[in-house]
Each structure stands twice: as C-alpha cells, then as structure tokens.
Amino acid sequence: MKTIRMRLILVYSAITIATLVVIGFFINGSINQLFEQYAKDRQKSQIEYIRNQIPELYQEESESFDIQGIEVAANAALQNGLIVHIQTMNQEIDWDINTHKNQECQLMLQHSENNMHSRYPNFVGGYTEEKYDFLYGDHKTGHVIIGYYGPYSLDDNELILINEINKILFLLGVIFLVLVVLLTVLISRSITYPITSAITVAGKIANGKYGTQIDQKSRNEETQNLIDAINDMSVKLQTEEKQKRQITADVAHELRTPLSNLQGNLEAMLDGIWEPNQEKLLSCHEEIIRLASIVQQMQVLYSLENRNEQLECESIDFSVLCRSLSVDFAMKLEAKQIRLTVYAKKGDIVWGDRYKIRQCMINLISNAIQYSDVGGEIELHISNDDQYTTILVKDHGVGIPADELPNLFERFYRVDKSRSTKTGGMGIGLSITKAIVERHGGMISVESTPGKGSTFIMTFPQKSEK
Ligand code: ADP
Asked: Prior bond to 258 cis, omega within 30?
C-alpha cells in the first residue's frame, strides 16, 4: 500500500508534468510561428532591397547596366540566401549568378534545406523563384529573377537562437518540476507527520497506556480534529481506568470489615464458641443485606458516572413531587417530630429524569432527617431564573465542619465514621446525588454551619429549545 506522502508526490508530479507539456507545446508553437513570420519578413525586405538596388545600377546614356555593381549586389544577396538573375529588355544583358557561382548557389540552397530539416524534420520546401520587372522612368528596362529556398528558411543565427530558447524553457521546466516535488515533500510532511504521531499514540493507547497525548499540532482542520479526538479519548479512558481502580479499591476497603465480621461470627458459630441463636443470625443477616446494598449502590453510581444509563427528561412539577415525598417520609418525620415545609407552588417546574431527581431528593431529605435533632425543621425550596432551576434542601441539624465540606461528595466519605456506622450510613448517597445532578448538566454544593444546620443546593439547567 502506498503512503499518503508517496501518493501526493506522484499526483503532484504527474499534474506538473502534464501542465508543463501543455505549456511547452503552446510556447513551442508560438515561438515557431514567431520565427516563421520573422524569417518571411526578413526575406521580403531583402528581396525588396535588391529590387530597389538594381534600377540604381542602370546607366541611361549607354542604356545598359553597371555589370560590376550588379556582381557586387548579387554576391551580397547570395550571402542572404538569394540567387539573382538579371535580364534587360533588349537582351543585351543576361546576367545570372548561377552561371558564375553555381557551386556556391547549390551549397547555399542545400544549407538552407538542412537548416530547415534539422529544426522541422517534416518541413516541405524547395527552390522558389520570383520575377520582378524594373522600370526606368516610365519604360520597362528589364526584369530581375530572384530565387531562394522557400517558402521561407531560417539562417544559422536564427536557428541557434531558437534552439537556445528551447533549451532555457526545458531547463525552467526541470527546475519547476524539482521545486514542485520539494514543495510536495514539505507539504505532505506537514500533513502526514501529525497523522504518524496520531497512529503511534493510538497504538500506545491500544496497549493500555491511557492518558498518552499527541503533542503535535496540525494546520489542517481535519487532522487537528483527529488529534483532539484521540487526545480526548485517551484522557477519558484514563479517567475511566482511574475510576475503575478507585471503585475496586473503595469496594474492597468497604467490604473487607463487614465480610471479616461476618466470617468471624460464622466461624465462631461453626466452631461451637457461639451459639447460633436468633439474635446472632439476625445480626449476620443484617450485615449481608448491608453488603448487598453497597454492591447495588456501587452499580448505580458506576453506570451514572460512566453515562451508561439514558436520562428520560420531562417537566416535573416540584410541588407535586414534594407532596409525594412527604407522604413517603411521613413515618420517619413523625418518629423524630420533624416538620417538613415545602416552599413551592403548583407549576414550579424542574426539567429532568423524574426517577433520578426523586432519588436525589430522597437522599438529601433522608440525610437531613438523619442529621437533624428531634423536633427540627427541614425546608424544601425551588426557584427559577432564565437558565437554571435551583433546589435547596435545608435542615437545622448538626451541620458539617468546614474542613469536611470539600470531600463530602466523594464515595464512602463520612464525616464521623462512628456516628455514621451507628446511623447506618455508607457514604454513597451524596456521590450518587452528585452523579445524577452532573448527569443532568447541573451542579451541587453545600453550605453548612456546625450546630446550626446544612443547606444542599442543586442547580439544573432548564429545558433547552435545541
Ligand atoms: P451516608 O449514607 O453516610 O449518609 P452520604 O453520602 O449521604 O452517606 O453522606 C456522606 C456524609 O456526609 C455522611 O456520612 C454525613 O457525615 C455527612 N452528611 C450528609 N448530609 C448531611 C446533613 N444534612 N447534615 C450533616 N451531615 C451530613
């Protein structure tokens, strides 16, 4: 399989060569046309010159020509490729350079033919004659016959010039082609280098080196998007991997104590140290239920954090939700004589997954009840602005020390281990609540004063028209 670089070089070179060939044909044709016209004009002006020169050599008194002058003029014309033949009307003079210098004339014609065939191998030409009368005053005194290799011919200098121009053009073409190949190599390098880095990094990620990043930047939008996507993927895989390790460590840590308690109790009963009575079996059963609950909550948290679960968002009437929750919590509230006040009117809406928003409220209200003193009060508030819905769950209970607040939403985090163990908390409720709120694109925070109470604040984005 060919590399992108090789493909680019081949394609650009082929395009350049094709362009050069077309331009070459065009320039060559133009040059030939130009030189043909030039040679024809030159020949014409030389013939014109001879035609004007001959009458000047006519001597009126003797009614004849100055033969010496004619010889000089005809020899000069021969140098320019013209064969001159002069005849007077009275046939007194019939002077032909061919009879005097036949060999030179033949050589000149052969030379012109060779010149033309060396440049244009298929050139069709041959000896051509033109006859012109010349007058003295108003009477015809004779005529001149001018022969040459026609229809036109290039002389040595013109041939050298035309060949030099072609050489220069060819050289320019080669230089241009080399430049294009060099430029293509540079361009293809800038395209393929980031791709090669992306392939290397993707290979590392595939081998489990999550978090590896492509440092390369690309000037091409598509390649840069590819780099960004791989970098994002790498970071996400790393985060997921960290989460998995963290969860495994957390779960192992959390399960170790209850499991070893359970193991110890059961072994004691099996060894006959303890009598397996109703009370001990009940304690073991409770521990097993607690373990099962931890595992189940971990599953919920994992699928929320990894976005495996789809949200089914709808408009939820907060006042209706709170009414239903106060029914559910009626017994617990009554047991501690706590008053639950709802500050919401019908039509106060929160946009979200009904089941999951309810789960958040259950977690926060049960905590509020758990950490409130007997006879306390819990408040539920809702408010809406242009973009967000804010829900507050406020209690007047024990509160949380300021230094504990930053870790509060971490899984298995408990402010007071002994207190929580006594009250049965596992430190997962707030992690689940936070995961649900963030899954909705919202935020959760807490304000608390020890001894005075805590307020949990959840902010949800409102339904977007998009
Ligand atoms: P738990 O199951 O232990 O309640 P959470 O994740 O819900 O787990 O809460 C974590 C810890 O935060 C609790 O153990 C408790 O110490 C503290 N906490 C939560 N809510 C409150 C509250 N309303 N008042 C005081 N402390 C709270």
From this structure: no
Q: What is the pLDDT of residues 123-169, one digit of tens each?
A: 999 999 999 987 777 777 788 999 999 899 999 999 999 999 999 99
Unique residue bearing structure tokens 């053009």: 169
Tell me how crowded residue 92 is: count the other CB atoms within 10 A of its CB: 12
Indicate the pTM of the whole model.
0.54
Nearest to 413 by CA among 391, 437, 434: 434
CA distance 143 to 94: 10
Ligand 1 midpoint to CA 426 (Å): 9
Q: Which of 430, 447, 455, 456 maximizes ligand 1 atoms within 8 Å of its Cβ, making it the mutation to test the pocket?
A: 430
Residue 421 has pLDDT above 70, yes or no: no
Instruction: Decide: helix, strand or coil at residue 377.
Output: strand
- The neighbouring-strand residues paired with 83 are 147
Query: What ranges make up the beta strands (E) of 1-82?
Result: 58-59, 64-65
For residue 230, is it left (φ>0), alpha (ψ between -120 and 50) or beta?
alpha
Q: Of 59, 118, 117, 121, which is closest to residue 92 (Cα–Cα)?
A: 59
Query: Ligand 1, closest atom to CA 397?
Result: 24
Q: Which residue has the least CA distance to atom 21 on ligand 1? A: 367
Kindly report the number of other CB atoms within 10 A of residue 65's CB atom: 20
In the β-sheet with 139-150, what is the strand arrangement from edge to edge?
A: 94-96, 83-88, 139-150, 126-136
Return the closest-CA partner of residue 152 out of 34, 36, 48.
36
pLDDT at 425: 66
Q: Whose CA is nearest to atom 18 of ligand 1?
A: 367
Out of 332, 367, 416, mutate this one to test ligand 1's pocket (max ligand atoms within 8 Å of CB): namely 367
Distance 455 CA to ligand 1 centre (A): 12
β-pair type (339-343, 313-317): unpaired
Q: Residues enclosing ligand 1, CB less than 6 A?
A: 363, 367-368, 371, 395, 397-398, 400, 408, 413-416, 420, 425-431, 454
Q: What is the pLDDT of residue 465?
A: 58
**CA-based nearest residue to 302, from 222, 368, 240, 357:** 240
Pair of tokens at residue 279: 């009370």
Centre of ligand 1 to C-alpha 414, Å, is 6
Q: Whose CA is nearest to atom 2 of ligand 1?
A: 425
CA–CA gap between residue 371 and residue 374 (Å, rounded): 10
Cα 190 to its chain centre, rounded Å, is 12
CA distance 23 to 28: 8
Mean pLDDT rounded to a whole number for the chain: 89
Q: Choose the weakest-confidence range: 19-28, 78-87, 246-255.
A: 246-255
Contact 227, 214 (CB under 8 A): yes
